[in-house]
Amino acid sequence: MGGSHDNGADVLGRLPDERAMLVERKPYALGSTIASRELRDLLGAKVHFRADVAVFVMTTRFSRPSEEFAVEHEILAVQRDHLGLWNNGTSLLSLSGVNGHGQGDSRHRAHWKQAYGKFPTGQSLQQP
């Protein structure tokens, strides 16, 4: 799967409990955020492929509206900070506990700004 004609699914598979899983990934540039329209497209793909679990994986961060949309529609939003956890053996489904909390606390956001020079567009360093 993957590519411009994949109907919103880069990976289709099964979880160990036999539920159907759909994964969409977007390698956006550092500093950009995913708009909620991208997650709406994934929700449509979830219906189209009759998937039980939808996962959106990206190399940067989600906008606040896109995080809220993901939580509301039970889409697992895996952003850059979660990729390290997943890569180091954390089970994908255990990341659902941090879904919608990808921006971290004020200390984490300050570290992001120090490490990368600026916080992603549309985000502030203030606590919500």
Describe the structure.
The structure is a single chain. The strands form two sheets. The chain has a four-stranded mixed β-sheet. A two-stranded parallel ribbon has the order 3-5. The longest helix has 13 residues, at 36-48. 32% of the residues lie in helices and 20% in strands. A hairpin with a 5-residue loop joins β1 and β2. The termini are far apart. It has helices at residues 36-48, 64-72, 80-87, 106-116, and strands at 11-14, 20-26, 33-34, 53-58, 61-62, 75-78. α1 packs parallel to α2.
Strands, helices and their partners?
Layout: E1 11-14, E2 20-26, E3 33-34, H1 36-48, E4 53-58, E5 61-62, H2 64-72, E6 75-78, H3 80-87, H4 106-116
Parallel strand pairs: 2-4, 3-5, 4-6
Antiparallel strand pairs: 1-2
Helix pairs in contact: 1-2
What's the structural domain tally?
A: 1
Query: Which H/E pattern describes the elements?
Result: EEEHEEHEHH
Distance between the termini: 37 Å
Number of strands: 6
CATH topology: Trna Endonuclease, Chain: A, domain 1
Low-confidence stretches: 119-128
Beta-strand residue fraction: 15-25%
Could you give a short account of the major beta sheet?
4 strands, mixed
Radius of gyration: 15 Å
Q: Work out the helix count.
A: 4
Can I get a quick summary?
The chain is of the alpha/beta class and 128 residues long. The protein is built from four helices and six strands, in the order βββαββαβαα.
